[in-house]
Amino acid sequence: MRIDSHQHFWRYDPVEYDWIDDSMAVLRRDFLPADLRPLLDAAGIDGAIAVQASQTVAETEFLLALAADAPWIVGVVGWLDLCAADIAAQVARFAERPRLVGIRHVAQAEPDEFLARPEVVRGVATLAAHDLTYDLLVFPRQLPAAIELVRALPNQRFVLDHLAKPDLRSGEIDGWQRDLHALAEFDNVACKLSGLVTEADWQAWQPATLEPALAAGLAAFGPQRLLYGSDWPVCLCASSYERWFATMTSWLAVRSAEERAAIGGENAAIWYPRIAKP
């Protein structure tokens, strides 16, 4: 089964999605399953995992409702307030929903030490009992806190989004690469090959621009802990879905058939074990 492990849906609202600034004007409209399905069909992709883009429980409910109506949305990475006093009860309640596969917080918008805070660690610790994965969304400077969180919870499954967003515009990635390898030393962490085009020059990037980041991700995690993702529709700021998919297909062409299958979907089924078959 081929899976796009990272994409978003929304009914655009300028208040709820206030992170979409003027530079991202292309995103200021609705993006729904009917918009994505033809792109997946053209790429030969069977299913997708929808990931939260707004920090509300209503967003989680919205994505779960979409997944209930579209079986090819094989999972939802939703949002819950991990610092809430009743987070264990909230997680238990939402874990009854068959398409919920994980939880994410937009930690990149928080102070650098956010993920290492005791209340966050306690919240994430409630997920493992329900086989829910935690998605790490961070900038490179926040990788040390992510490492502290992962170290504290060895029985929790983690997936790093967008390779932790290396600064491909400047090309200054030595510190990011060092911390990426440090995170990858923990075998309960996998990584999505997604979101890179929006960390490069949106107009000028070429496949070679992304090669250092992709090579570093492969060296750190190996093919058994990498997941293909598009970050659609956010990728549209810098690339069509077709161009991103072609870029990844070309990059993977030198890998074995087994490794291509793993990165293209099999790993997603391992790292999000609650996903449904489309």
Description:
This protein is of the alpha/beta class and 278 residues long. It has helices at residues 33-43, 57-69, 87-94, 118-124, 143-152, 174-184, 207-221, 241-252, 257-271; strands spanning 3-7, 47-51, 73-78, 100-105, 133-136, 158-160, 189-193, 226-228. Helix 4 links the parallel strand 4 and strand 5 (133-136). Helix 5 (143-152) runs parallel beside helix 6 (174-184) and helix 6 runs parallel beside helix 7 (207-221). It starts with a strand and ends in a 7-residue tail after the last helix.
Assign the CATH superfamily: Metal-dependent hydrolases
What structural category do the secondary elements indicate? alpha/beta
| Unreliable stretches | none
Radius of gyration: 17 Å
Number of strands: 8
CATH architecture verdict = Alpha-Beta Barrel
Instruction: Please give the count of helices.
Output: 9
Shape: globular
Structural domain tally: 1
For the biggest β-sheet, the strand order reads 1-2-3-4-5-6-7-8
- Measured by DSSP, the beta-strand proportion falls in 5-15%
